[in-house]
Write a structure and sequence with these properties.
CATH topology of the largest domain: Glutaredoxin
Helix content: 25-40%
Shape: globular
Order of helices and strands: HEEHEHEHEEH
Number of domains: 2
CATH class of the largest domain: Alpha Beta
Number of helices: 5
Strand order of the largest sheet: 1-6-5-2-3-4
Largest sheet: 6 strands, mixed
Structural class: alpha/beta
């Protein structure tokens, strides 16, 4: 008896299973925050006098990832500060659209919460800031798709800023809070 058709079917089924499993695993892994302890020197961290900073890179014209992520950061910040009575957290919005006036970036950040800080850089994506945060800058509408929506947690440990967590933009408020407490 020849088992070739059955074997070929099994191989095809196995191939289809891999095709379905790989994207599912990639999606699941994106929901797990990356833990790190990398020392960083970023220009906007030098003036911040708290222990923790959540950083999100986006642009004011964004109508998808940015408002959702910044709203999550707002809810996290409000709960952390007001409900838990903690005052060692700041939120910084890093504008990835080059040559945006500082006032526009700050106004956009503060439209989510008055305590949020907006940071605009006039340098391109080869600067240490954008390399550290793996952000791609752009200057025209064709490059909008380069925007990933990652949230970073930095902690000041012994007078040295360290990137301690990296979250996907789909992270829920409770998961952010659990890593802040």
């Amino acid at each position: 008896m020849d088992n070739r058709p059955t074997t070929q079917k099994n191989i095809r089924l196995l191939g289809l299973a891999y095709v379905a499993i790989i994207p599912a695993l990639a999606f699941m892994l994106s929901l797990i925050p990356l833990k790190t302890n990398a020392a960083v020197e970023l220009p906007f961290l030098a003036d911040i006098q708290v222990q923790r900073v959540l950083v999100f890179g986006g642009f004011p014209d964004c109508s998808s990832v940015c408002p959702i992520s910044l709203s999550t950061l707002k809810q996290t910040y409000i709960h952390y500060k007001d409900d838990l009575n903690k005052d060692d957290l700041r939120v910084v919005f890093v504008n990835i659209k080059l040559n945006t006036p500082d006032e526009i970036t700050q106004k956009y950040a503060q439209s989510f919460h008055p305590d949020f800080k907006g940071y605009s850089s006039k340098t391109n994506d080869t600067s240490p800031l954008y390399k550290t945060l793996s952000l791609k800058t752009f200057s025209n509408k064709q490059d909008y798709s380069a925007h990933s929506g990652i949230i970073y947690l930095f902690e000041n440990k012994n007078h040295q800023w360290r990137m301690t967590r990296v979250f996907d933009s789909n992270v829920e408020q409770q998961k952010l809070l659990s890593h802040l407490l």
